[in-house]
Amino acid sequence: MSGRLVEARVQGRVYHVEVAPGGLVTVRDASPSPAAPPDPSGRQAGAATVHAEYLGHGRLRLAWNGRQRLAWAVDAGDLRWVFLDGDVHLVEVDAPRRARMPGAGGPGPEALSAPMPATVVKVLAAAGQIVARGDVLVLLEAMKMELPLRAPHDAVVRAVRCAAGDLVQAGVALVELERR
Amino acid sequence: MIRRLLVANRGEIAVRIVRACREAGVESVAVYSDADASAPHVVLADRAVRIGPPPAAESYLHIGRIIDAARASGADAVHPGYGFLAENPAFAAACADAGLVFVGPPADVMARLGVKPAARRLAMEAGVAVVPGVEPAEQHEAALVDAARRLGTPLLVKAAAGGGGKGMRVVRAADEIGEAIGAARREALAAFGDGTLYLERLIDRPRHVEIQVVADAHGHLIHLFERECSAQRRHQKVVEESPSPALTPHLRARMGEAAVAVARAAGYRNAGTVEFLVEGDGDAARFYFLEMNTRLQVEHPVTEAVTGIDLVRTQLAVAAGEPLPWRQDEIGQRGHAIECRVYAEDPGQGFLPQAGRLLLYREPDGPGIRVDSGVVEGSEVGVHYDPLLAKLVVHAETRAAAIARARTALAQFPILGLATNVSFLSRLLDHPAFRRGTIDTGFLERELGALLRPPDAEACALAAAAAAVLAGTPAPRVEAAGRPAADADPWVALRGWRAGAQGEPEGTSQQ
Q1: Same domain, A65 and A144
Q2: CB-CB: which of B383, B426, B460 is closest to A89?
Q3: Residue B478 in contact with residue A7, Cβ under 8 Å?
Q4: Contact at CB, B463 and A143, closer than 8 angstroms
Q5: Are B466 and A73 an interchain contact pair (Cβ–Cβ within 8 Å)?
Q6: Which residues does A24 contact at the CB level (< 8 Å), separation at least 6?
């Protein structure tokens, strides 16, 4: 498998991550207004080089600059949960993938929901609105992090079932879409 | 002699009691609501009885159904755990009426100590100082306002039938008294059905220090030293430890004697805890009786670690009529223990309780590390009950070593799928005031901002790397709802299996 380039968003920061064969990972901070991240590898300005190896059973070994750490992670579809040194990170990773919504592959209503209990910060869509894949429809907050709910594909918004300030539970439909 | 014990509780404490039963050769009966049908405590016990739908009022708080479950399963004893019906005298009495041994104090002792003003009077009769206050016989607003003015601010308006911080209001200035009384009364009525109020002087920067006591049925009553519980948020404890860094040996001895005096004056039996507020430092510190808890407490493992005494096993022995095997002078504290309560809540969202599936859950282990929990990977955490997931209890030679051990263990306690307070606990243990041992009960609320600091840039970059790598691997994905993760502990899946056990197959009766 040749190297993959993905965009990863975590804690309000945006990273461009290149995964080379053999597990060598290069991470570049591409945040709109980045504070210069500490550069553990010292190799490339604004980049970090990490060797990341999946050990199975949800465990990963991360090695950089002579140090190594054990991390744990699960793939929950749109989000990946990562545990490292006592902190939890929710990471959005953009990789080409099939739509994961129920009813995927044909016209029909689909629903977006929060991945965990969260507060609605902002509603950015309205019924009848035409949206493109990747558009942020609702902005949620949990664990002091922003969690954008994005259109998984081009769609028409059928209904919006939340408002700014709402506390919402995981799995409850917040936006209903119809694929275009 | 107890042969079969029904555990009238759920979650981690039910697991704890079931384990103690197994070790003592006592058969265990678990009860469960529909939300807990596959919960660890149900799967571990020898028998299990369904007692109702998820809401606590229809299950774990339903005295009739629990007594029926005891009869149906042939139990001869009941352990109430903590919370739920543990301090409900009507339940203790119902057990006695049904011929069941209740693992706890007699119902009338429980009742007396459950009314806070009565408990205060009992402490005073025992020669123990109480938080200065007044219990007005006249309960109309004018009388309460007058009493508050005479007591002086700052003061606390408290519910007589209360507990857990409900029905309480702080008053810092005289013009706040009327409103505080109204608000406390409304809350007390809603929470306890009783709007009777009393007033206490507000102690400045107090420490919450409690003394574990245990009494047998033969008049022998001892204390098992203290637990320091000042790391609290809205009267919910977060971290507890023993010994308390605030107590000198002289103060410790006086508080132990005071706790024993109160318990003896109450005619107490089995395990209980006397709570004190401590004001000041050193030998001259003042301590005041706050209340007595007539049950086993959440943080009991901290006492078990430093004294080497198994409290639940002791409770079972006392309930079975055995005498306590130790004299007071034979019990000591060794090393230092710290407990961190891991809650399913989001500190960054006002500690919002979480509901969801534990996609990944791995407990730390190693020397001096103990985890009491009622969940496993794949468990569904619901909204019906207390959000306590697990208790991480560490024991080490010194306080500094215990802090380091707890900190390391938290970094190896991954819980994914919902928010928890694990990183919040780490920040708390790192805080200079905690490390100095100088925190009071107001500390957590004051320092909330500092304890919610997000991870640094390097950690985020590493998380991005981990997530990107995961995307290309056969990593664990979300399992279908209700099925345990493929790597769940198989021993948990062995329902009620016992090697060499005689006779009856395990039964799960429906009610």
Answers
A1: no
A2: B460
A3: no
A4: no
A5: yes
A6: A49, A50, A51
Query: What is the distance between the alpha carbons of residues B486 and A57, in angstroms, rounded to a whole number?
Result: 9
List chain A residues with CB under 8 Å of B381. none
The answer to the question of residue A100 being in a domain is no
- Relative orientation angle of helices B422-430 and B399-411, to the nearest 10 degrees: 150
pLDDT tens string B66-124: 999 999 999 999 999 999 999 999 999 999 999 999 999 999 999 999 998 899 999 99
Residue in chain A lying closest to B467 (CA): A80
Is the per-residue pLDDT at A41 higher than 50? no
Q: Which domain holds residue A127?
A: 109-179
From A63, A94, A125, the end of a domain falls on A94
Select B207-451's CATH number: 3.40.30.10, 3.90.780.10, 3.30.70.270, 3.30.470.20.
3.30.470.20
| Topology given in CATH for the domain delimited by B4-103 | Rossmann fold (3.40.50)
Binary contact (B471, A93; C-beta < 8 A)? yes
A62 with B456: Cβ contact below 8 A: no
3-state secondary structure of B239: strand
Q: Is A174 exposed, middle or buried (0-12, 13-18, 19+ CB in 10 A)?
A: buried
Q: What is the CATH number of the domain that holds A155?
A: 2.40.50.100
- What pLDDT digit, counting tens, does each position of B488-509 carry? 444 433 444 444 444 333 333 3
- Selecting from B354, B452, B475 the residue whose C-beta is nearest the C-beta of A73 gives B475
Give the total residue count for chain B: 511
CATH number of domain containing A80: 3.30.700.30
Among A4, A29, A75, the strongest candidate for a mutation testing the B interface, having the largest count of B CBs within 10 A, is A75
For residue A27, give the nearest of B464, B471, B476 by CB distance: B464
pLDDT digits (tens, 9 = 90+) for B287-297: 999 999 999 99
Which pLDDT belongs to residue B217? 96
